[in-house]
Write a structure and sequence with these properties.
TIM Barrel; 16% strand; alpha/beta
Length: 318
Amino acid sequence: MKHSQLGNTDLMVSPLAFGTGPLGELFGPLTETDALKVVHDAIDLGINFIDTSPYYDSAEERLGKALVGRRSEVVLGTKAGRYGVDDFDFSPARLRRSVENSLQLLRTDYVDILQLHDIEFVPLGPLFEDSYAELVKLRDEGKCRYIGMTGYPAATMARAMQETQLDVLLTYSHATLLDDTLERELAPIAAEQGVGLINAAAVALGLLTPHGSSIGSGHPATGPVRDAAAKMVAHAASRGADIAFIANQYAIQRSGCATTLIGTGKISHLRSAVNAIETEIDEQLLQELLELRPSVEERTWTSGLDENNTHAVTKENA
């Protein structure tokens, strides 16, 4: 599996990364034995970047067990600041305690990447000052090698790159068959600021799968996005194609990102995603699917505070 440089860091990452939400049973039951096995399978398949978080319940603890004797084989990332559905605390003291706990659970004395998790749910002013300053301190102390932030709204992600000096940034569902916001809006800023973009949620949180999202009515997507996804699923099925496989192909091969995260507890899904890395895309089918995209104005949904979902008016665009 070919590796690519992540932004201006010295990290060389595989085009497919492993997200550990399923290890913490966020999407259904998974025994510890199966959790450890899927981590080992991922590494054996050539995946070298693994992303986790305290928010993913037991994921860090299970991942720590799985990486005994294999820590040197992976680029390891975790997060801080989000600990539950509505539990956010980005205060410097809490961030520091979180990182120390994560390192203990992961059985390591440092992580390669440390990110603030889902920053759009809190006011950004203090986060870009106090929380960011603590990230820098933790990096300077060797608790992590590189720092970043994660979230969904493009406006928030743009501000994070422009108002702080990040090494990496993770965003999700913006480089999919449904939405090209990452390429249109975020990639140019990342290139200008030297930030390594980490792509995630190629199947749009389950919308681009044969049976739809397991999140159900709790999925944040708007009506137009849901309708477009349903049409894509039906069209792929009519052509005898696997919509999830095409979605992974598109996200991995066309996002322009060095790596794309996939979260799964099933080895069959993992192998399919690996196959999507180099399997040639059916260009005709891809164009047919892209023609079903919502309008540019309707490709995204709201996440977090309303104020963090709109682009601030600047002197240049006032």
